Amino acid sequence: MTDLQHPADPVIVRLPAEIDMVNAQGVGELLCSAFTPGVSVVIADMTSTTFCDSAGLRQFVMAHHYAEAHDAQVRFAIPHRGTLRVLTLTGFDQLLSIYPSLPAAVTAGPAPDTDAASG
User: Fold this and answer.
1) Is residue 79 in some structural domain?
2) pTM attached to this predicted model
3) Domain that holds residue 102
4) Are 13 and 30 in contact (CB under 8 A)?
5) Other C-beta atoms lying within 10 Å of the C-beta of residue 23
6) I need a labelling partner for 68 at 20 to 30 A (CA). Which of 28, 36, 86, 97 fits?
7) Beta bridge partner(s), residue 41
8) Closest CA to 17 of 75, 83, 102, 63
9) CA angle at 94 for the pair 92 and 41, rounded to the nearest 5°
10) H or E segment at 88?
11) What is the pLDDT of residues 38-79, one digit of tens each?
12) So what's the pLDDT on residue 119?
């Protein structure tokens, strides 16, 4: 008889309306600390986030690398075009798993084509 492993539900981390140099490090720490034993998916809920500067982007990349190092995944739910535009202009949309809504990030498998996510 085989023991089946069922992955835990994704952990959702609600991020603030603005992410900048003042709070970016805390955001990064919050994302990484969500990867407790048994957690394979953390979702950065950015549905309320309307501004993110380069300090925030740096933390997202660090969280992505942290997740990869722990055989896990961080997904970003980003419905606001302005926030998504920053990721697109910097090319980070090619690295990060970005979804157009929280439900899409929760139910998804691998990251969608970023063109479809931004559409």
Assistant:
1) yes
2) 0.84
3) 11-111
4) yes
5) 16
6) 86
7) 73
8) 83
9) 85
10) helix 81-90
11) 999 999 999 999 999 999 999 999 999 999 999 999 999 999
12) 43
